[in-house]
Amino acid sequence: MLEITTTRANHLVDPSLHVWAWQIPVYLFLGGLVAGMMMIHGWFTFADRHRRAESVSQLLPALGLVLLSAGMGALFLDLEHKLFVWRLYTTFQITSPMSWGAWILIAVYPALFAALLLRVPEPLATRVPVLRAWSAALLADPARVRFVAAANMTLGALLGVYTGILLSTLGARPLWNSALLGPLFLASGLSSAAALVHMVARDGAESELLARADNRLLTAELAILGLFLIGLVTAPRVHQQAAALLLGGPFTAFFWVGVVGLGIAVPLFVQTLAVGRRVRHTAVAPVLVLAGGLLLRFVFVYAGQVSHYGPF
Amino acid sequence: MNAPFFKFGAFGDETALVVAFVIGIAFGWFLERAGFGSAKKLVSQFYLDDLAVFKVMFTAIVTAMLGTFYLGWLGVLDLSLVYLTPTNLWPQIAGGLVLGFGFVIGGYCPGTSMVGAATGRIDAMVYVLGVAAGTFVVGEAFPLIKPFYESGFLGRLTLPEVLHLPYGVVVLLVVLMAIGGFVGAEWLEKRAGSGAGSGAASGAAKEASR
User: Fold this and answer.
1) A-chain residues within 8 Å CB-CB of B14?
2) pLDDT class for A268, splitting at 50, 70, 90?
3) Distance CA A297, CA A281 (A)
């Protein structure tokens, strides 16, 4: 970083400052995915689905904890000074999205753990018997169950939106500087989560429900993407140049083929046929949605670092 | 003269990939609707009891050929700018045989395997993995096979040049060949007693009944 700031901050040496590599998009994807899973879990808990033996509800918190930890691991790898990570938790800066993110991530863990207690997976309960007692105490009071569901939905929404806001507040990057990035990443995270849960759910009704929900979320994502692009191309020149990265520039094929085509349009079409009973459900559509969600983060993180204010 | 659009700069490399994706998806859609996402249907042509693949593909070739010919004749399309793969006779014969054997053994060609995989067929997904593995092996072994790969080079060849016939005459001959092929295919199908009738639609119906 020192070398970049002292000798390389020259567009003839480094045309763009590129400091975020694969770790950030992977973290943003896994964070968004877990956010969506928390919201789905909260929804299912309010619908009393967590009491059903076949419900996917019992799988979501454990899976969420694993995926979030993997995402946090990727984020940790990106840190320049790994030993000082604890300092994030010595302060709360209300105007800093990173500070918000750090605290939201910490709050997500107990919320997921509480959700796990609503129905402890049998292998875990066998190994840690005390979890049964905690689970019984939690389930004894319906208000506590509703609180856990509400906490998961709220923190899930905050986590999902935060992954987009983290980028959108970096005003020096015109591609990211849009208020729609938060809703876009939230919709994408929810859609990815719906696709994953649809794929792993054993209960046919739940799987079908999530396929239908995913179709609506994919449609919303497509609409937000459209509005996002309209916002950029009708904004001042620097934003138009940022949009050009996706509209004929070096990220066009990745964006339109990978994200919009294979990641949204094709699975939306296939899944619409599937819920209409015209073709059978397969893993193809959800896998494409998940791959598209990951690619969306890669395209935005990488293209965003190329977009900048002059010289052009 | 305004086509080929890419050669005349209507769009750049990146947008060309998006156009290719849209065309590819449309191609895959029509292959699937014709029933070509099923290995059973595809290999039926080798047993001569259902020649829908032959008829559909030959129809596509003739349609594209006539479109290209008339657009060139009208001055809309500059045929000299349409990309043609250069001919390397021996490696292309060998490649064609390898692809043919793979088609008969595996039940798919690379394009139809993608169609089958997109509709959730496990055998097609395995075939796609095989295509990827084969591509990887050829890529890694390329220095060894490069002399053969570049052998038999004949440059950019077209049938009118090879046959020393006017372009329009070749087009007419191919159309006549297609009509003959369709009649012959119908005869073979009836002889095989498949009762498949003609065309992709009935083939798809037959597939659906399996």
Assistant:
1) 248-253
2) very high
3) 26
